[in-house]
Amino acid sequence: MKDEFNAQPDISKIIKLIFMGAGIFLLLGLIFSSVYIISAGERGVLLTFGKPNEIAITEGLHFKFPFAQSIKKMDIKTQKYETDASAASKDLQVVSTQIAVNYHLVPEGVPTLYQEIGIYYQDRIIQPAVQEIIKASTAEFTAEELITRRPEVKEKIKELLRERLSSRGVIVEDISITNFDFSESFNAAIEQKVTAEQLKLKAERDLQRIMIEAQQTIESAKAEAEALRLQKMEITTDLIELRRIEVQRLAIEKWNGILPSVTGGAIPFIDITKQSEVTF
Where are the alpha helices (DSSP H) in the chain? Predict the structure, then answer.
């Protein structure tokens, strides 16, 4: 009997310890469940019995009522959405477009977005908007224009997306058209056209070069003819007389003092020295 009496306090102590441990665990659970942290680049939507608060919770440490309130965190940093879209061009060519959209959520509009759309907003509003706008924009250009006027196509898609998604609290920062893909027959036709244009451009450059070289030859001949004409104009009577005098001067400088006995004329020169030796 004494042993049984002594065993009763031990069991009650154990029970007390169990209840105390459970109480401490529950208290710690309540404390931790009433504290939450919103990290940088996030906004929180505070739900009170499922109803979202209209004010977005900013970064930092916050408190909430356990069981009655919960928090939904939403990313407001720049995000990227990529997809493929198939559409028909203005000239009825099938075009497959690969596009990447950079966007972010309006921080103060996060509660409304969560209430109206939920956390799967990318699938519910972004993806349908991108598909519809790509189809509408592609239909305004021919397949060739989609390539040659690519910046214009990009700007049109971007502006239409901005207009469509901004009312939902989604800001489109920029888009990138990573690829346009066409049918094999159209790609072959484009390649042939590009080759023909390159050959035409080369022929035009060759013709222009030949014309320039011909013009240069003509101009050179004209310059040479003009030089000859000017030289002929410069040959005057005075110039001829001057040249004759210069020739005579050179001849006198070379004369050895002895007159020729015969000249090229009809009258011969008389050698006075020889005649002086004749006696009468």
Answer: 2-33, 110-116, 121, 127-138, 143-148, 150-166, 184-234, 237-254, 272-275
